[in-house]
Structures are given as C-alpha cells and as structure tokens.
Amino acid sequence: MYWALKLFYDGTAFHGSQIQPNLRTVQGELEKTLNDLKYIKGPVKFCCRTDAGVSALSQIVVADFTRKPIIGEINSKLPKDMLVWAYSELTKEFFIKKLIEWKLYRYYLPALESTNLDKMIEAAELIKGRKELGGLSKSGQGGLIDEIRINQKNGILIMDFKGKYFSWNLIRRSVTALYMIGIGKLTINQFINILNNRKLGVHPAPAWGLILLDVGCKLNFTVDQRALHR
Length: 230
Hints:
The protein is of the alpha+beta class. It has seven helices and nine strands, in the order βαββαβαβαββααββα.
C-alpha cells in the first residue's frame, strides 16, 4: 500500500534531506517516526534532495505503508521543525521522479537600495531553457530552468526558479551571479562568459535563503486542514 506525503521542514538544524550516518537528516527523522509508529515496510523515497540548511514547504515523499496514514498521529511524533500536511494513495509503486512535473524553488535575500532589478531580470533571461550552464553548473550535469521571477518587497529580494530538474547548487550559484549583476559587481558580458565556461564558476549563495516552495505532481492530494494551518 503506497502513499505519498507532502512534507514541510525548517532545514536550519538538518544536515540535508538524505539519510547520513550519525547526522540529523530529514529522511532519518521521518523514517524513525514512521517506523516507531509501525507505518512503513521500507525506506522513504524523496522527490528531490535538499542540502544542509535548505528548507521545504512542499517536499513529496513516497513509502510502502502498512495502513492508511493518520496525519495527526504522525505529526504528534515528528520533531517540531517537521510537519506532514497532505497525503495521496498510489495505485501501485512508482519511480517517484516520474510523478514530478516541475519543481519551484524560492530564494530570499536582503536587497540593497542600489540593486538594479532590471539588470537582474535581463540576465535571468539568459539562463532560461539552457541545458548547458557553464560555471553555474560545476557538476557537469546541466539543468533546465523554465522560469525565473525576481521581485522586491519590503527590502527583500525574492527570486523564484521553476523547472524540471536542477543540478547540484545550480540555483544557489544562479542567485549569486544575478545578485552580483544587480549590485554592479558583474556585467552582463561577464555573466555570458560564465555561462559558456565551466572554469569561470561562482560560489553558491548560502543555503539558509533557499526553500523548496512547491512541486508539480501527477497526484491528487488530500490536505489535512489542521496541519496546513500549523
């Protein structure tokens, strides 16, 4: 009996989503709780990994359950920086990545008074739709960002990245480059050179500003209103 869950977590105190020996991880805490409640038969599979310090509002996980999950019961045993808020039954086991249509990440960072949003938006257009992203994708795995939105509110820059897949640190490197353009420390021409040359990479922005905001999925979820309110 396979079920998918939507999971929130504050990534501050986690060493990433994937289980690691002797470290506190999202997968480790979730599997411990579900095993203690005798809910699952095997490991929990995540739709995507998040690094240490990265948070999620709508991470999707799938596991083989022994019975229908009771959201309130699960949340009463989970740590306070985690919460399950929706669930969906699967008719059969799926390779979880085949269920995912897109992922939406959001990055928050302080905006300087001199930040040039128009330049950032102009540069963002150069990233969209490219499979080879040079110095923004140091792993060599590329990526595909379909949509980037940048706006400013109450002194905070909000940068949204939507796409099918992202190589390791692609978003955080993109944030660094676009921010440097916005504050005048990087020109558009220099940015084009970075996109065309992996050796000209930039450092990833800090993990604390990044959130897995939403995931497009081929499933209909039932929302637990009490959990959603929390």
